Description:
By secondary structure, chain A is α+β, with helices and mostly antiparallel strands. Chain A is built from 7 helices and 7 strands, in the order βαββααβαβαβαβα. Chain A has 2 domains: 58 residues, no CATH class; 114 residues, Glutaredoxin (3-Layer(aba) Sandwich).
Amino acid sequence: MVKLNSGFYMVRCADKATSDKVKSDAISTMIFLDGDGKEFHRTIVGTADTVEAAFKKASELYSKKPISWASGEASDVISGAKGEAKKLVALAFLDEKKDSETFLSSLEDRWVAKYHERMVFTKVAFDRNSELCKKYNVTSAPTLLLVNPLQEDAKKSVVDSLVSKKELLSVRNFLAKAFDKFDKASKN
Amino acid sequence: MKKIALLALLAIGSTASARDSNVRWMKFDEAIAKSATNGTPICVFVSVNPNGSG
């Protein structure tokens, strides 16, 4: 039999404290939370089939997502993104080395996939002597710059940057902090 | 409703492999803390609901 629950931390809710935290409203409910503790699926189950379906649905909803790269020059992508509400341009300076590969894998992970819809991804081949690297002061790969397309000044347009970090936790923390900062600034 | 919850609880156990049919249940706060380090999703099963039906 397939071990469907192996990819989840399992919690049995039978006390008021946990019940309050997950806002449980019915017995025999399965509630799924992501790595940020945010609920992404909830369903009532009662049979082996419905339990299996719940695990499958949760695994589908919380899954790795490939990056959809924008085509064209970075400057054109930034200009084109001006009409995209609440989106940032993600300039990924990459090379052929293992660190860039690991970084990309982290960026596609299920934990950070929810941020994809808020970014327009542009892949840039890292060359420290290129105009683009000089413009944004990029000196190593992998580097991820989150650029506000509405800001004309190149230096001021960088909301945040992640340099030489490739691990999933670093990428997740970076994106959470950067979008929090961007959203707060957008409100003012 | 409690009977259904019991059946579902058994079903959750039965989705584990035969060699490892016991589910490792964690405390909610422990699961949240561990999940925040690696992104592993959490499944909360409401077997008793002090806030509502059942």
